[in-house]
Amino acid sequence: MKKTLFEELQRIHSITYGKNSEVMNKVLRKKLNESEKIDDPKKADLVSDDVESFFNTLENIDKELSQQSYGSMKHQKEVETVQIALTLLGYGLPRFGVDGLYGPETANAVAKFKNDNSADLGNKLKEYRNLSSSSLINELVTVQLDDVSYSNVKVDNDATKYDYVNVELLDDLQKAAVAADLVLTITTASSGHPDQGTDKSRHSKQIAVDIAILDGMGANGASNEKNGNPKFRELGNRLKDALVQLGYTWNKEKGNEKAVLWQTSTGGNHYNHLHVSNKSGASDAELSNLSKNSSGSVITSEMIKLIIEKLKQRGVTSEELKKLIDLTNKKVSQISLSGDWLDITKSLLRKLETYKEKAKWDENAYRGGYGSDKKLVNGKLEEATKDTTWTLEEAEETMDYEIKNHYAPIVAKQLGSENWNKLNDKQKAAIINLENNDAP
User: Greater confidence, 28 or 383?
Assistant: First the structure.
């Protein structure tokens, strides 16, 4: 990547200026291939280099930690502590280092740790939730949908996100979605499902959800096994089959602990959505893979417990902590977010991407506007779906926000403030566009 990046920068600069400059040949080569770690007191500097205090901080993390969105990142003591722990265990952060920010690099390290330790995490999960205890059936663990993060389970942005749902049901949905190779969206939970007579519905008991969006698409008004969106029906069948393999009964909920209603009129129109319920624990099948796949890059309680065990087995010294606390790969001061380079960057993006009003699938995401997989809504970036549209003004606002809050700061941090300031406006614009094209 570094070699390719440098060669591309040389090529762009050569096209623009006809020859390579001293900055391109010396400064960029040095900065793209060297890692300079500097203690930055402005970062989350609350972690102590005292070993006992360090472990106490880890043990007192009482919430799940999720990846932060660009533009809204905040330094967190808990994140910094986990970054240090992962680095000590061999899961390094070569690009941004220990900085207390939960970005993509930290998320990748978390996911790799989960992947490498999936069996141990599965046992920790079973121990943590006490799945072997029959008491769990009578006292289910529920969680607010807005407080969880799964790689393959999403939630509609309406009142549903404030509903509480059996976490074991969510874990099973994640496992099934991964197995079916799709992303499901919970569109209804307990909201909108009032008690029916003397018998409360499973929705009201917080053990059932409806899924009306699969891979970002809906059923298009399906009311039988032939009409509506055939692709949605295909994905629904795949999800249903995966749930059945996990022990869910198809189209017969009464008398069964776990059930999925799909392609049936029993209990309503279940041609346009899947109804899935679970009044017991998570499925034991392939439990060891649960933490590998479940919750994506979310730092969970069982992960923290396993990290502590492995660190204590390895041993940690105060000297090691001193070397890692509050380190960043590059020190960069606040860059100016205005100037000719910003206008040139936008001009290049307009030429390379061209404006698209409606999102279309492009390699790994829905993209529109000026090639963005996100849209700026009320000051925050939201993931684009197949239904996302941008006015020209919205596309411009999104582009401006991403350049200022994401792409330009990343490039400036890679180069360092001094060398960023040595570049002329055209060079800055070319590098930022390259970073944009290389982004996942």
Answer: 383
Tokens at residue 197, please? 């007579």
Q: State the Cα–Cα distance between residues 99 and 109, nearest whole angstrom.
A: 14
State the Cα–Cα distance between residues 223 and 206, nearest whole angstrom: 26
Q: Which residues of 15-43 are buried (b: 16+ CB within 10 A; e: fewer)?
A: eeeeeebebbeebbbebeeeeeeeebeeb
Q: Is the pLDDT of residue 286 over 60?
A: no
CA dist 29 and 22 (Å) reads 10
Closest CA to 306 of 168, 63, 120, 82: 120
pLDDT digits (tens, 9 = 90+) for 299-332: 877 789 889 999 999 999 998 888 887 554 444 4
Domain ranges of the chain: 2-36+333-438, 51-120+296-328, 144-283
- Give the residue from 33, 34, 14 showing the smallest Cα distance to 24: 14
Residue position matching structure tokens 């141990």: 120
- Which residues, 6+ apart, have CB-to-CB distance to 231 below 8 Å? 217
Which range has the worst mean pLDDT, 110-119, 210-219, 378-387?
Answer: 110-119
Q: Is the dihedral of CA 330, 298, 294, 158 positive or negative?
A: negative
pLDDT per residue as tens digits for the range 339-386: 788 888 888 888 888 889 999 988 778 899 998 889 988 877 888 999
- One of 3.30.1340, 3.30.565, 1.10.10, 3.30.1380 is the CATH number of 144-283, namely 3.30.1380
pLDDT attached to residue 159: 87
Cβ atoms within 10 A of the Cβ of 247, count? 15
Overall residue count recorded for the chain in this entry: 440
pTM given for the model: 0.40
Distance CA 37, CA 94 (A): 10
3-state SS of the chain: helix, strand, coil percent to 5?
45, 15, 40
